[in-house]
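Dear U.,

For the methods section draft, I wanted the exact inputs and outputs in one place so we can describe them consistently. I've listed the two proteins in the order they'll appear in the manuscript figures. Please don't edit the token lines directly; just add comments below if something needs changing.

First protein:
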Amino acid sequence: MNSFKTVRFQKGAGKPFLLYYFPETRIETDAELEGEVINMVILETKNLKKYYGEGESLVKALDGVDLQIEQGEFVSIVGTSGSGKSTLLHMLGGLDYPSEGQVLVDGKDISALKEDALAIFRRRKIGFVFQSYNLVPVLNVYENIVFPIQLDGNEVDRKYIDSIVKTLGLENKVNALPSQLSGGQQQRVAIARALAAKPAIILADEPTGNLDTGTSQDVLGLLKVTARKFEQTIAMITHNEEIAQMADRIIRIEDGKILKGGDGR
């Protein structure tokens, strides 16, 4: 008997629906028959809230955030300092728990997972690119890239890793230590590491914050190219409007609320 999978689709601006199908069978849906584009929602929040303190000291860092990000999208989340964008990234990445609401990654409500299960899910399904690179100083470039895969006890897909390394122009740096790399090269290693485990989504937190303008453009260009090539979804936090314009869509957040772009419009 063939096994089946569950796929979540978004038809137009309507609600997502579930479809069961056999992997060997061509998928046919009403949306296809009507000639509409089918978009799969890979990341979603529902009435997401994060409060700190209480009474007069209550801070509503996130106050009822609803957003959807489709598979393969490159989305920028922008806002002023204190707008809630970093808190939102922490919620999306399972780095903190919400006060209320849901965060669904690849159809899984990560806000309902216990800490150990959340850590495993985060390692397997979410790739991170941070402003400070967060490379292990005693490991070389290749070892840093495959480290999360080995940490999970999985076999490294060398052909896939080699393809990432080549795309990011790191072929001649695989044996170098982080201290022997420029800032731009270190960030490329961080991007490769985020891609290596084939996550459901990559979250980038001010990935060009420590880079000069020219290097920032180069790194973001490579991030976009690799995302397209390896069919990855990216949500990027940035305060830089010029950098934000490189994304497919911009989501604006202020005072813990989505002002524009959360629903794809």
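Second protein (the one for the lower panel):
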Amino acid sequence: MPSSSSSRVWLLFRFSAHKAQPRQAIHKRYFWDMEEHKEDEGSIREIIVDEGQRPLRLDKYLIDRMQFVTRNKIQNGIKDGSVLVNETQVKSNYKVRPLDLITIVIPPSRNSDEGIEAQDIPLDIIYEDNDVLVVNKPAGMVVHPGISNPDNTLVNAVAYHIESNGGEKLPGSANDRPGLVHRIDKDTSGLLVLAKNDYALSELAKQFFDHSIHRKYLALVWGCPDPEAGTVDEYIGRHPKDRTKQFVFEDRDQGKHAITHYKVEEDLYYVSLVSCQLETGRTHQIRVHMRFLGHPLFNDATYDGKSIRKGTVFSKYKQFVFNAFELIRGQALHAAELAFTHPVTKERMHFEADLPEGFDQLMKKWRSYLSNRKSHQ
């Protein structure tokens, strides 16, 4: 087993035969205390495979349930012998069975002393205590540093806020996404929760893993989905020809399981305001799923939403739409609601964020246009 000081990302999965145990008791052992084990094994998570689970490849089963671990890391872990079934090395095509016990050992987080520069950038803080921080991110702000955006990100701003108030540095990898358990796209606005210590980080990550965190988005899409409420259950992966895009795959072995529940909140004929609730958190999930339904997000250049998808060809209407594009930066998508169980107090916490100014103006513009159209009929 690699030492805790190793920079190599590793996972150990152990499957073993066992007697059926109460699921509630097993659930409490998803994470061991991180402080107790940080010198040897790091945090340990255990999963009981559902009794009704159909036979499914080992790698596919893990990919579906570990949205923050890449397919390659899981498959490499299996290939390297870090995945055991009943103490025996297996291949990626091993079929999981009901009531298998999956034990996931993750190395403890590294300190965030290097790699993240604290920068004095304004933050819209919705809630803060000693364990968590909830922020309302504006469209146009990148969540965490990367090759294309090494600074001026949300994480840089949060690091400055915490350090300037005498707090400890963000938990997690210095060169990855300290404090983060989820993210939203650069041009998506809305709510994010960050962890301020290792315990909160592991507890929040468990809630995302269990799909017990509530996330509701508001999206303006072209046209009106039919039916007006439903569920998109389609597998998403990188586009085979354009690696900057995501794609819905008919062959489910090629993508990751993604589930989006949607409901039309306001039908404006040309466009509709749709609420979306996520069960999974795949890259560009809402944008890809709505495009798959034939209703791309308004002003989403990546997924065919920055062109007129419904309406007349007259120049006056075209100019109206182009002016509407200018009101917002990027796709019309806002993370409007977030609910989770506080990692320490266990209180259920719910937060809401109003539409940002540009999005709100966009809605008013479309409502006015539709009203004027009806008055002239």
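Candidate sentences for the figure legend, describing the second protein: Residues 1-44, 106-113 have pLDDT under 50 and may be disordered. The longest helix spans residues 357-375.

Thanks,
Y.
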